[in-house]
Amino acid sequence: MFLLSVLIMGVSTFAVRSEEHMGAAGSCRFHGRHPKTRFQLEGEPLVLRCPQVLHWESTSAHVNVTWHRNDSAAAVPGEEESRVWVQDGALWIVPASRADSGSYICTTRNASYCDKMSVELRVFEKTDASVPLIFYPQIIPLSASGLLVCPDLSEFIGNNADVKIQWYKDSVPLDQDNQKFLSVRGTRLLVNNVSMEDAGYYTCAMPYAHKGRQYNITRNIKLQVKKREEETIPVIISPHQTISASLGSRLTIPCKVFLGAGIHTTTLLWWTANNTRIEDAYHGGRVTEGERQAYSENNENYVEVPLIFDPVRREDLHTDFRCVVRNTMSSQTLRTMVKEAATFSWEIMLAPLSLIVLVLGGIWMHRRYKRRTGKAYGLMELKTGHPDSQSYPSKIKEIK
Ligand SMILES: *[C@@H]1O[C@H](CO)[C@@H](O)[C@H](O)[C@H]1NC(C)=O
Ligand SMILES: *[C@@H]1O[C@H](CO)[C@@H](O)[C@H](O)[C@H]1NC(C)=O
Ligand SMILES: *[C@@H]1O[C@H](CO)[C@@H](O)[C@H](O)[C@H]1NC(C)=O
Ligand SMILES: *[C@@H]1O[C@H](CO)[C@@H](O)[C@H](O)[C@H]1NC(C)=O
Ligand SMILES: *[C@@H]1O[C@H](CO)[C@@H](O)[C@H](O)[C@H]1NC(C)=O
Ligand SMILES: *[C@@H]1O[C@H](CO)[C@@H](O)[C@H](O)[C@H]1NC(C)=O
């Protein structure tokens, strides 16, 4: 029993060692299955790239790539002898048959490191029903013109500048004399005056010769035409130029921007304090920008970013706050100052006090004048009543 466990420990230590020091020769790190399944039409040439190679190429020049099917230990030969071979690290099958469907594992190694990944391949029979299953989505904005690209052809084209691609829409060939469509720069199709009706399925076909046989490489494209989103000139509609706040209290100043029918995604909106971004001006976070909100009211778009003081301090009264909005059309800045609100405590204290003074003064004067002469009475009313009648009209009436 003891001997057995020693043996197991020894073996596992050796296994760890071999992984660390003999990566290239021994174990190889398996990265699992690539998330994208490759779909292919039967009878057409196929090139399967190893997803790991792109990742390696940036770090190392001398990388060896081998391929094998997951159910076979035999590596695909490196020479172009049979129907299936490896060339420049990619797996070539010319032409693909439905029996080629399955899992392929590519192993990428250099002197010190080794990687593995599996790639799923599904080969379909060439029928109309298979077209919607195998397509490359492409998008063109509704505009004067746009380009479609016949994808995944680089291995077949190589340095060959003279590429002849035939384009089809819904299986109907697109005439080259057409003003609407123009085949340009090898693999591209120029679509003029793009309209919503141009959306749909396109096919591009490139002839390819191999060992004296002529093949077609076709790609299906599902074109989506997107309405162009317009930009408008943004207008800051709030805040006001001065904002009243009490020192020590929390304050939120929203900067609200009107965009009309324009989009908010390209609209930048921010606050500054003394021409400095808020996060740089207040490292402690006493003053911050709140969360950006984009919304619509009556089909008009708005975007809003609040400035939050927690709390307001005296120095804020001397700081130059600005709300800035910018998009590709224009930019606008609105300046706002924080003003100390008239302190209510003083008013509340002074109002009754002045009333008492007034009442007492009134009584005193009333008595004094009454003692002197009854004729002067009316005149006195006028004199005492006038100076304060604007502030406390109701009280004056009561005194009378
Ligand atoms: C092998 O590849 C690894 C990973 O890309 C890299 O870090 C290492 O430098 C390479 N070694 C050689 C000898 O190229
Ligand atoms: C090969 O991959 C397929 C899935 O594509 C899986 O069903 C099968 O079990 C794998 N075979 C082996 C020997 O790993
Ligand atoms: C890559 O393969 C070639 C030929 O098969 C071989 O000479 C070379 O040593 C290999 N390089 C590595 C890093 O395994
Ligand atoms: C573009 O197409 C629209 C309708 O699809 C048409 O009314 C307009 O005249 C066309 N413009 C040009 C320049 O061809
Ligand atoms: C290639 O495909 C196009 C369109 O499907 C067809 O017209 C043409 O005959 C095909 N060529 C070959 C060699 O299969
Ligand atoms: C902004 O400048 C004013 C005057 O120079 C200063 O009183 C205030 O503290 C400054 N505020 C900030 C946040 O730097």
TrEMBL record:
Domain of life of the source: Eukaryota
GO biological process annotation, one example: protein processing
Compartment(s) of residence: Cell membrane; Membrane; Secreted
Keywords, comma-separated and alphabetical: Cell membrane, Disulfide bond, Glycoprotein, Immunoglobulin domain, Membrane, Receptor, Repeat, Secreted, Signal, Transmembrane, Transmembrane helix
Keyword Zinc attributed: no
Protein family according to the UniProt entry: Belongs to the interleukin-1 receptor family.
Protein name: Interleukin-1 receptor type 2
Organism of origin: Capra hircus
